Write the structure tokens for this entry.
Amino acid sequence: MAVLSGEGVKLSYSADGTGYVEIAQVVTMDGPNTNYAEVETTALDSTVREYRAGLKEAGTFSFEIQYDPDNTQHAAIEAADGGFFLEVDLNDDGTASEKFSFPCIKTAFSFGGFEVDSNVIASVDVRLTGDIS
């Protein structure tokens, strides 16, 4: 059984979905997650509530970076008011690589880590605006 390590996973940014540039100093990533609506199909003669899967919701993605105001990608994400694209590269010990990308909008950008012996962290939340490819 193969186990994929989080080490070596890369996150990249693109303003237009082409020409991705790796985002430096990423420390955590969570997602993307997708959800399906639950559409009730229970009829009067049913003996238990019944459902079918509805329309897929693209979901959310979040990540944290050790913030550098001089980093081009950090500044672009902080300033983003419109949509952009992210790409996750699941690097498997350099022997194989699976990438997936998605369009998104920024829903939150917040700072933390303002304490002794800590790094300034920017936490970023995005909403996917299309399918994962």
In short: The beta strands are 10-14, 21-22, 26-30, 35-40, 51-57, 60-66, 83-92, 96-112, 121-128. The first strand starts at residue 10 and ends at 14. The CA atoms of residues 6 and 64 lie 14 Å apart.
